Amino acid sequence: MRIFIVPIVVAMLAASMSAPARGADTTGDIEGSFKEAAQAPEVPATLSKGNWQRAEGLLPAELVEKVKSGELEIRTQRTTDLPPSPAYVAATRRNAGQPRLRPDGSLEGYVAGRPFPQIDPADPQAGLKLAWNYRYHESIDSAQAWGVFQILDGTGRMVRDMEFYYALAYGMHRLDAKANIWQGDGVLFKEFYQVLAPEDVKNQMRLTLRYDDDRTSDLNFAWIPEMRKVRQVNVDPRERMMSSELLNEDYYGFWGYLHESDWRFLGRATLLAPVAVRAAKATFEPRRGYPADPWELRTMLLLEGTPKDPNHPYAKRVLFVDEQTGVALYVFAYDRQGKHYKTIFTLYGNPAFSPGNERVRAPLWMGQTVINHATGGAAVTVMNRIVVDARVRNEFFTVNQFALLAR
């Protein structure tokens, strides 16, 4: 039986509240690489079909075309300063120079912080180093979330609406060494997912263990409601979630294994992106799934990943990685003919607008959307509630939890 699970990854980045952007020399020092360097040219309050020319230079050409056609309309806001926590910066400085790439591309010597705080464009391994930075951006120790996964067809009709609960906990490379509770087992994090509705998939659950070694496959356990049994299952990262536009490895922009792709650094650009949502929930355009909250200028590093498998659904993907926070704000996927046909947006919000999280100084991962520009279909994830102020019990991430929750 095929198990339909959404392994949503709730990525939390330690940060300050909204503030004007600061210019910085991102090549001169470690602290500089964590400062938002986007300048503030005049940006229209709205970009639409009527003024699409103003989008040139503010968006990648692929998105300018969407504005020009009237498919995408963008509201804008001032750039938000989202620096990592002082502890993450201190760990980066303290461990600078220790992380190294092995001949096979794996990482050694990494403890905590950003592995490679300064990326030299002339370095032939710049792309792979940026990919490791992306994997080890700052994240909180644990989180819980309740949300909805929706599938839209090419006409904008919702064909699937699924409620879920999700829990995540990290156990390696923590800023507080006492939190490295799974270091002996080599487990980077554990995540638990449960379907809450509708009835035909209710109580499908999965527990995933992601290993720190990128070449060790995830360990996945699933609860089969009809059998009331736990099964170890294989999850293909390239498989489409419920036949939607979302691949298993599309979560979080890209959540696959680094060693399965060749990585190339394409350079730095200052572009508009949907980020720093100032609301309790992220919003999406109801027919096509585009982010509807305001976009802002961000300094981004362009990272190209080319799958080594010639049968992969994507010929390549380009990640637009926010230089300050280290996360991918959007990702372009290309087909075998080199055409951009899919965009993955990830949405992050300011906790000051999230009930119960006002004291948390970390922007919250509020959802994502995957849009197929060829078919018009989309897969949208919306987080309705996020709790990050208390660590989820370690006992929760065991297969024994399945039977208890399924009662």
Structure overview:
This protein starts with 45 loop residues before the first strand and ends with a helix. It contains four helices and 17 strands. It is mainly beta and 407 residues long. Residues 1-28 have low confidence and may be disordered. The chain has helices at residues 61-69, 86-94, 126-135, 400-405; strands at residues 46-47, 74-75, 100-101, 107-108, 142-152, 158-170, 187-197, 205-211, 219-224, 229-233, 261-274, 295-307, 316-322, 328-334, 340-349, 364-372, 378-387. Strand 7 (187-197) and strand 8 (205-211) form a beta hairpin.
Question: In short, what is this structure?
Answer:
The protein is mainly beta and 407 residues long. Helix content is 8%, strand content 32%. It contains 4 helices and 17 strands.
**Quaternary:** single chain
Structural class: mainly beta
CATH fold naming: outer membrane lipoprotein receptor (LolB), chain A
**Can you name the CATH architecture?**
Clam
Low-confidence stretches: 1-28
Topology, element by element:
Elements (H helix, E strand, L loop, with lengths): L45 E2 L13 H9 L4 E2 L10 H9 L5 E2 L5 E2 L17 H10 L6 E11 L5 E13 L16 E11 L7 E7 L7 E6 L4 E5 L27 E14 L20 E13 L8 E7 L5 E7 L5 E10 L14 E9 L5 E10 L12 H6 L2
Antiparallel strand pairs: 1-2, 3-4, 5-6, 5-17, 6-7, 7-8, 8-9, 9-10, 11-12, 12-13, 13-14, 14-15, 15-16, 16-17
Q: What keywords describe this structure?
A:
globular, mainly beta, 407 residues
